[in-house]
Amino acid sequence: MTTAWSNDSDSDSESSSSEEEEEKANLAFMANIEESCSVSERRTLWDYMVDFSTTCTEPWLVGGDFNSFLALDEKKGGKRNYSRSTVDFQACVSAAGLEDAGYIGNKYTWFNGQQQNGIWIRIDRIFFNAEWTISCSTVHVQHLGRSCSDHSPLLISNKQEATKGPSRFTFQHMWCSHESFISDSAAAWRMAPASSSPLINMAMKLKHMKSFYGKWNKEVFGNISTNIQEAEASFSNAQNAYDEDPSNDNYNVYIQTKEKLEHVLSQEEQFWRQKSRIKWLKEGDNNTKFFHAYAVSQRRLSLISTLHKEDDTYVDRNEDIAAMFVQHFSEAFTSASYQINPEILEHIPTILHDSENAMLCFDHKAATNVTDGLLSFLSQQASSSTMGRLVRCTFMAAVWEIWCSRNRARYQNQNMSAKHIVNRTMLSIRAASASFKLQNLSQPWSTALRHTGGVHAHPKLSVPVVVKWMHPPTGRLKLNVDGAFRFVAGEAGGGGILCDHHGRCVFAFATKYQGVFSALDAETRALRDGLAICSNQGILNILVETDSLNLMQIVTEQVSRPWELTCIIQDVAVTAQKLKA
Asked: How would you class 309 by CB atoms within 10 Å of its CB: exposed for 0-12, middle for 13-18, buried for 19 or more?
């Protein structure tokens, strides 16, 4: 049985042509199937369905008892294999381009009624074609109980889909085909807020671009359906004008509107291709209809129309479904955490001590750097001694420096250096131990904390060396700077003196530094302060001398700058260039 209907069955016989076209557009077909048990008769029906699908351009829904199944999981009991009838049915559905409407309720629609050799199969189902997917509302099929027959009645409803909530942002590929997309995007990227941190900077710019594209899509690109309607209207007017007056001007307008229409149609195809998420189909023919049907089908499959509650009841109202989701996640996020049975923990061997667990679980989020974190950990009241906690701090500092070095290598294209990691780790440990006033350290730890390179059995003692001061050329001034760091007390200072070619002092300075944990840092600060004094006094064309070869190599860019001294070195370089030092 085949049935056709329209949304307006009482249309007048003298209706206008536009009304007839609208009624034709709303036409649809529905077929009810009651298949025979004969294989040959079923093949006749399969052939008819395939032939009808090739000629039918309207929405078509077909359903009933097909007396065959599509997949092995749709049958329980008996011989579970693919018979010739099943293969023919699969070929028919594929060739006719039909899509299963799905179901709600029990999986199987037929039962042979036998207790010992029971067989359950899903042989009753509903199909529809691509035109139905695009033009008609979503069909819901429910398998009712088999109370009066060995078949389950199929209840078909066309409940409207739930109202869509806020959609997530998706970059549309069709935007790239707009003539002003590149220039507008570049301008928006430059106008985005910036940050000194590369990752934060990228996140802020992406957030800005997301907001920009949402506004740009509404104000500049426009709705794709509206654009197509406007392009079709313009092309139709241009075509009529050229047919009436085939002048050059009308021909140019006709070509322009035709190209515009083809352009927006191509954008529509890109839109539905992206929405359908199909990657295997190559570019070429216009497949907008196929992409549209596939995207709508995917949306239908992801639609939640019914939920099964714990008391074996169902909810199908949108408000009830939303309330169930809210209740589920509210209970999941507010319920008490799961308590582990202490008897299970007794059988797990203990590897870490309580103090080691305290170090690993230590909350250092409030610490601004690794040194602050180490100091906070050292100040904890723990069962282990301060020396034991200092040993564990070494592990904490090493892991932190490895992580920082890895991030610099990944995001700032800096090479990972084992020596740099060791030096930075020792610097953090020295700073923590000095600030915590650990004066009574054992000899091995004192040796290790004073050393920044390889391991030696005995620390080297510094021997004073007298160096003769070299006079600058006549008419030139010479600035000598020096810095020092006292490890045990955690104190640092620096100073300098400016003399002429006779050795007469022009000025001298000395100061203490806070937050300095190396002699190189103190010497760099002394050089910065000395150059700043010369700049303030208007003294130019000076010579600079320091006893730190490493500092001179860093300033002259012969070696890479330590990241912790980057800001100070930049100030030194700018001031030195201004003073011609």
From this structure: exposed
